[in-house]
Amino acid sequence: MSEAAKNFITPMTMQAVSGNPVHHQLFDCQAEAAMGHIELAKWADIILIAPATANSLSKIALGLADDLLSTLILASTAKLLIAPAMNQQMWANSAIMNNVEQLKKRNITIIGPEQGEQACGDIGFGRMSEPLQIVEQVLSLVNELGVSSIAERLKQTAPGLSGTGLSGTGLAGKSILITAGPTLEAIDPVRFISNHSSGKMGYALAQVAVAAGARVTLVSGPVSLKAPQGVSLTSVMSAKDMLDAVKQHVDNCDVFIGCAAVADYAPCEVAKQKIKKNDEEMQISLKRNTDILAWVAAQASRPFVVGFAAESQNVKEFARKKLINKKLDLICANDISQSSLGFNSEYNEILILNKNNQETKLPVASKINIAASILTEISLNL
Ligand code: PMT
Fold it and tell me: Is residue 253 a part of any domain in this protein?
């Protein structure tokens, strides 16, 4: 952590949330005794700075070394990735642009920044890229560099993986089918019924499963995410399409994870032409969609079946009912009454229930870390 980073959160918080040791001082006797800054520089295969301030970025461009971060970068031969985050005017400043050019010339990868609303209220380029997008770039680099075990790397960075089977053979070679995102149920050629699922949770599961060595097929409703590298993607629209795609891919799969927010109902009929607004009130008749998760669990030779439960009240009780009624092996319950978690958020908080009445609480964490913990739990229950 740089000095600037410590103004936002403390090293203690960072350590608790990440489950990893945090280095932040250049001259620290204790840290030097354990892993000094030169050792740290030699240890890394890849260095990622996210978010990177205008100051850090410029120091690296100039080769300055006045704190731990800039010193270890100067002392390291590791591939460097920088995900800048700063005010849009600062990013547009020619001083920063020149420094970015210098960095690119030195084969340093610049990820983003993205356009959008900033913490200061400005709108423009300067927002840090989405964490999932950053992880994606790191993982593809891991593949490119041929680091022998991506899972080993993840084990060091995702606390859910520590000391579990995931880093070893637990999921390696297994075939995992995952559904993600919303479904979209057409009413007429322009309108549809859908929900707020962004696909982030399901895509994070796919990404970590691939990293753990599994063969992953992702059946996804319409989302704006790119399929993680190494994942075989089938894109669908409606619940019916999703069911058909699952039927096509479920044979011989070892684990099925139903993370999609599948519409429970679809219009009985899809109007061929755009419906005109002739009346003050109108009714649309809906019919129940097949429950994909329950369908998979009812198959004679079924995979290990993991469901999700998106609940706004009585979370544990309703999730347990779903676990039993749908004959699941595990269910991941999320409380979707909190707008900062679950649907369309970078974060989630999950309660995992299994058939033997055991429960595992996953406290608030990024969806990548939650995915790692869920897959760890699956590998332990397989
Ligand atoms: O996509 P994100 O923005 O990242 O948000 C993640 C999430 C909140 C969507 C995810 O964590 C989640 O909870 N997914 C399940 C949402 C849901 O539809 O829950 P449910 O309680 O309505 O359904 C229970 C289970 O049955 C789910 O596993 C669902 O995939 C499955 N189901 C439901 C209906 C249906 N016709 N077929 C199904 O398979």
Answer: yes
Considering the domain architecture, whether residues 46 and 184 belong to the same structural domain is answered as: no
Mean pLDDT of 292-316: 97
310 lines ligand 1 (CB under 6 A): yes
Q: What is the reported pTM?
A: 0.68
pLDDT digits (tens, 9 = 90+) for 125-149: 999 998 877 887 887 787 677 654 4
Q: What is the DSSP letter of 44?
A: -
Same domain? For 191 and 88 the reply is no
What span, in angstroms and rounded, lies between the C-alpha atoms of 19 and 159?
5
The parent domain of residue 27 ranges over 5-129
Closest CA to 99 of 110, 112, 113: 110
What is the residue with the minimal CA distance to atom 26 of ligand 1?
293
Do 122 and 232 belong to one domain?
no
Atom index in ligand 1 nearest the CA of residue 201 equals 4
CATH number of the domain at 66, please: 3.40.50.1950
CB atoms < 10 A from the CB of 306, how many?
27
> For 175-209, how does the pLDDT look when each residue is reduced to its tens digit (9 = 90+)?
999 999 999 999 999 999 999 999 999 999 998 89
* Catalytic-residue membership of 253: no
Distance CA 268, CA 187 (A): 9
CATH number at residue 256: 3.40.50.10300
Verify whether ligand 1 is closer than 6 Å to residue 194 (CB atom): no
Q: What is the domain count for the chain?
A: 2
Is the CB of residue 132 below 6 angstroms from any atom belonging to ligand 1? no
